[in-house]
Design brief:
The protein is an alpha+beta fold and 345 residues long. Helix content is 46%, strand content 13%. A 4-stranded antiparallel beta sheet has the order 2-3-1-4, with no helix packed on it. Strands 7-8-10-9 form a 4-stranded mixed beta sheet, sandwiched between helices. A hairpin with a 6-residue loop joins strand 9 and strand 10. Helix 9 packs parallel to helix 12 and helix 11 crosses helix 12. It is elongated and about 80 Å long. 24% of the residues are buried. About 2% of the residues have low confidence.
Length: 345
């Protein structure tokens, strides 16, 4: 460091003995510097010379506890850290990538510079710091601005977005089947995932002699995608199963009649049995796919050995325990897998 700083080395060492500067940067998308300086600022300040919306404040201001902070009116930031975002010549319509964004000092300022006309992608290698980034972006109002950008950029009409979501729900709940898992996954991403398909059909429409109204085209796209998905999905066969043909619901009826409706899904993932009966998982390893399999199987074997739950469901034909006896078995109409339900003696 001494070689790098040269004559400034001693001054750099002395800086560590001084009190650090505290600062904040106001959200120019919500208030102006004039409003902040004349009527809103609740504590003493002086301006930071290299950014128009930055201010020095005293350390005892307790700015992180003020309601203005939680309303997203300002961001607490060391004054020198305000320089990079202030120096970048970002303007409305630009596309900005911030890959070391957490906790949000640069991204919040750059997002305001875009004025809702452009694209800001912010990410960080640290998962814990990325959570702080998301919180600050939400406080700053940039999540809402991002949705407005998508709406304006791709010109998706309200009717078309509504049709996309309804199409996803029809796919999930069609034919009397019940897939709670896929509801959240498909419905949340339905409108966003339809953007490329909508753009593709819009491009084809421009080259086709037959000019279809945008609303008809959007509706066609909205219903075509779930239909194709249902044809190629591994869960297609479940779409045409009624509850009476699904072991999950039939076993749930048997278990619910017990005074102790506790269930262990043995040597398998949930398979929908816990969800169908609204049963709580008996241990942390109710799904072995994303866990340490050896530890998961050991924990489940221990529960069977001790008879912890009143019921056990499994697809293993060689399941054997002196504490349990088989009370039901069932399989799907189009599958060879047989499920067994065991009850504690």
């Amino acid at each position: 460091m001494k070689l790098l700083l040269g004559a400034d080395y001693n001054e750099w060492l002395e800086s560590y003995e001084k009190k650090p500067f505290a600062g904040l940067r106001i959200n120019a998308a919500k208030i102006t510097p004039e409003e902040w300086e004349t009527s809103l600022c609740p504590f003493p300040f002086r301006k930071v010379p290299w950014t128009p919306n930055g201010y020095y404040i005293s350390e005892d201001s307790r700015a992180s506890r003020h309601p203005y902070y939680y309303a997203g009116l300002y961001y607490l930031q060391e004054p020198s850290a305000m320089a990079p975002a202030s120096a970048l010549p970002v303007k409305p319509g630009d596309k900005v990538l911030d890959l070391c964004a957490a906790p949000g000092g640069k991204s919040t300022e750059l997002g305001v510079k875009l004025q809702g006309k452009g694209l800001l992608v912010s990410n960080d290698i640290s998962n814990s710091r990325a959570k702080a980034l998301l919180k600050n972006l939400e406080l700053w109002g940039l999540i809402v601005l991002g949705l407005i950008f998508l709406w304006q950029e791709y010109q998706i009409l309200f009717t078309e977005v509504l049709l996309m979501i309804l199409a996803g729900l029809l796919f999930i709940f069609g034919k009397g089947s019940w897939y709670r898992y896929y509801t959240f996954i498909f419905s949340c991403f339905c409108s966003i995932g339809m953007i490329p398909i909508y753009r593709l059909f819009k491009l084809c429409q421009g080259k086709s002699p037959m000019k279809l109204p945008k609303r008809i085209l959007g509706a066609f796209c909205a219903f075509l995608f779930p239909f194709c998905l249902s044809m190629f999905s591994m869960n297609t066969e479940y779409l045409f199963c009624s509850r009476a043909a699904m072991p999950q619901f039939q076993f749930a009826k048997i278990i619910s009649q017990s005074d102790d409706p506790s269930l262990l899904t043995y040597h398998s993932m949930d398979m929908g049995f816990l969800t169908a009966g609204n049963f709580l998982p008996p241990c942390r390893y109710y799904c072995i796919l994303n866990a340490d399999q050896d530890a998961a199987l050991l924990a489940q074997d221990s529960m069977v050995y001790e008879g912890t739950t009143n019921f056990v469901v499994t697809y293993m034909e060689d399941f054997s325990s002196p504490l349990y006896e088989k009370c039901a078995e069932m399989q799907y109409p189009h599958r060879s897998t047989l499920y067994f339900l065991y009850k504690r003696k």
